[in-house]
Amino acid sequence: MLVLSQLISQEEPDKGGTKLDKVKVFIFAPADESGKSHLRLQKLGCNLSLGQASWFTPQGDNEEQMCHMSKDTDGMIGTSIRSSPITRKVMQSSETLRIISKYSIGVDDVDVEAATDMGILVTHSPVESNWGGVAETTIAMMLNILKKLGEKTASMKEGNWRKEELAHTYIGRRESDGYEGIVIGIVGLGRVGGRFADLLRPWGIRILAYDPYISDEQFAKYNAESVNLEQLLKLSDVVSLHVVLTRETRKLIGARQIELMKPSSILINTSRGPVIDEAALVTALDRNVIGGAALDVFEEEPLPVNSKLRQMGDKVLLSPHMSASLTGNSGFGLGIELATDSLIKALEGKIPDHVFNPDAIDRWSDRFLGRPII
Q: How many alpha carbons lie under 13 Å from residue 236 in its C-beta half-sphere?
């Protein structure tokens, strides 16, 4: 297998014997270990440049370096890039930039608003293994914390047997005695939230959902009642967050919202850390305002060693942003394939699939539609 550096160094000559290096593609966070995506692009005449592996991590500020590598590029592609978000300044490094194509489903590392202003398309790769994996992790977290599996394990390892305080929550509806089950509140009923609702269906429990951007038919599809956020927080025993990170959703759940929740309720976040005001959550857990939290994402990642969340014992279930990290056939390769397809379409002067910022399409079309460069 060719390593990435070998692939990048190979440029195929055209029929005239000159190198096809007119089209520039910046792979800002490379993840294609097979090299197939890179080879596809090179065969189409793209001159590729690779970002550095260190940019995957949350530390550091490499904006100037990103600007340098983005200069005069026609397309950008890659996975999540935590330390060096693709800012307006980075995009302004190239007047010919058509597309920023993500291997992953998340785009919170791209200034989508700036891209839309500039007529640049942002695409993502919503592969089922990714969003389906997040929904399954949400189920696992909910079961773990409501069934007190961690506490039971720790107690057993200390030599104990049954303890009354380790009795757990019965989740589903019971026909035998009319028990209605708990109430689940889903904030964001898109792909992940919808799959989560589907996985809950056999329990026959009441599902509330808040999502101002979907149709009534979508609520009906997932057997969910449409409510506003305040109602959802007040009535739910479990509140699970499944939203993208935008200006609107940043700190969507703060002190005021947590105060609305039941004292016994559980807050689950497998979306993005900044959706919750973390300091407000810590304070609420300290004061027993809610019963607990299960978190896969955090405002600062990696979670600092001295974070109070690490010191809250059984009140908090923690996971290191791995809800979509799967063994075996994870489907990430499909994400790379989809992102590469989107990039190629844009370079061909066509509107790609999976456009995250459709408001940019009209301006993009004025600039690039029907103007192929490969």
A: 30
Q: Could you please state the CATH topology (level 3) that the domain comprising 4-127+331-368 is classified under.
A: Rossmann fold (3.40.50)
Task: From 351, 360, 344, select the one nearest 111 (Cα to Cα).
Answer: 360
Q: Which CATH superfamily is domain 128-318 in?
A: NAD(P)-binding Rossmann-like Domain (3.40.50.720)
Give yes or no for a contact between 63 and 84, defined as CB atoms under 8 angstroms apart: yes
Are 4-127+331-368 and 128-318 the same fold in CATH?
A: yes
For residue 253, the 8-state DSSP code is: B
Q: What is the pLDDT of residues 125-162, one digit of tens each?
A: 988 878 888 999 999 999 999 999 999 999 999 999 99
| CA–CA separation, 309 and 142 (whole Å) | 18
Query: What span, in angstroms and rounded, lies between the C-alpha atoms of 110 and 85?
Result: 6
Q: Quote the tokens at residue 271.
A: 């979306």
pTM of the entire predicted model? 0.84
What parts of the chain have a pLDDT lower than 70? 1-21, 52-60, 327-332
At position 349, the amino acid (one-letter code) is G
Any idea where the domains of the chain sit in the sequence?
A: 4-127+331-368, 128-318
Active site residues: 272, 301, 321
